[in-house]
Amino acid sequence: MATSFVAVLMGSDSDLPVMQGTLDILKKLEVAFEVRITSAHRTPEQTREYVIDADARGCAAFVAGAGMAAHLAGAVAANTLKPVIGVPIGGSSLQGLDALLSTVQMPAGIPVATVAIGNAGAKNAGYLAAQILATADSDLAARLKDERSAGAAAVQEKNNKLQETLAEG
Ligand code: RP5
pTM for this structure? Predict the structure, then answer.
């Protein structure tokens, strides 16, 4: 059986600075992925063909980032039963609220798990995709657990430093 991977799609190269956050998290967690620039509006046929092909080759989850009237995640979800995570990209005259509503307001039966607008959302898309794969990969689940522990330790460290600073002052 082919190795599972995550397919990360974005509507334009202008989305890459934000979507790099998804790629960084997947790399850090040692999750295999593919990346494609493909658009629901500008290249609808190529988008459909890629999703069907990736699905058949072992894609376990799709991440789709797009801005403005963002229909990429929905177009992906229309062509696969694998989980689809939508990342609304900001930077438009509506600061990404347009992309958020376009991505999240899916009709019943074609779900898109939509994360926050922009950088935090792109990173969370990486974590969420990894968590989906981790349901069948105990080593990945252990790496995710370590990541959570490191995040908690970093917050505790920041608090310790703040308390020391306050005590000195
Ligand atoms: C969307 O339109 C893309 O996802 C991008 O966020 C936005 C603008 O695209 P460009 O004009 O920068 O290529 O389809």
Answer: 0.95
Dihedral (CA of 149, 155, 159, 161) sign: positive
pLDDT in tens, the chain (169 residues): 457 999 999 999 999 999 999 999 999 999 999 999 999 999 999 999 999 999 999 999 999 999 999 999 999 999 999 999 999 999 999 999 999 999 999 999 999 999 999 999 999 999 999 999 999 999 999 999 999 999 999 999 999 999 999 999 8
Alpha carbon of 50 to ligand 1 centroid (Å)? 19
- Paired tokens of 74: 């929905």
Q: Which residues contact 4 (CB under 8 A, 6 or more apart)?
A: 32, 58, 59, 60, 133, 136, 137
Which of 46, 107, 36 shows the shortest CA–CA distance to 66? 36
Nearest CA to ligand 1 atom 13: 12
- Which atom of ligand 1 is closest in space to residue 91's alpha carbon? 6
Give the Å distance between the CA of 43 and the centre of ligand 1.
12
